[in-house]
Amino acid sequence: xxxxxxxxxxxxxxxxxxxxxxxxxxxxxxxxxxxxxxxxxxxxxxxxxxxxxxxxxxxxxxxxxxxxxxxxxxxxxxxxxxxxxxxxxxxxxxxxxxxxxxxxxxxxxxxxxxxxxxxxxxxxxxxxxxxxxxxxxxxxxxxxxxxxxxxxxxxxxxxxxxxxxxxxxxxxxxxxxxxxx
Length: 181
What we know:
By secondary structure, the protein is an all-alpha fold. The chain has helices at 2-7, 25-34, 37-46, 61-66, 69-81, 84-100, 104-118, 123-139, 143-159, 163-180. Helix 5 runs antiparallel to helix 6.
């Protein structure tokens, strides 16, 4: 178990995986036998569905979702365990993966699902997510939608007096304005 955890940075900030990890079915069976379902959820989310070469031709969310079999198993396990933290990390992983490859409409879909999950539970995380969603919309040339996302982020960051985050959002907003012409 430790070998796999170390290989995947101890389940921490591993959003840019470029390959799947070799996890034997025997190992998976042992994890299930011992009831280590939380670890199994992490493995399903992080160890599989990382080879982006096969995703580059995908055009729809449905096509993308069909490629994420183990990822969805991990999400289901995390949900059944009540591991909201892992679910949030899983959304961040898929958002980073899709945005890094320019699959912006798919990224926006996952941003919206993540926003729905957050609800009113964490305003600061919501502001970060809306800032990221604004960036993806700017990259997709959806400048008004990007601006709306940035405005929401700034409102939250200003209320929290998080000036560093306000500055980052204003920078993104200025790039949006420049690109919009």
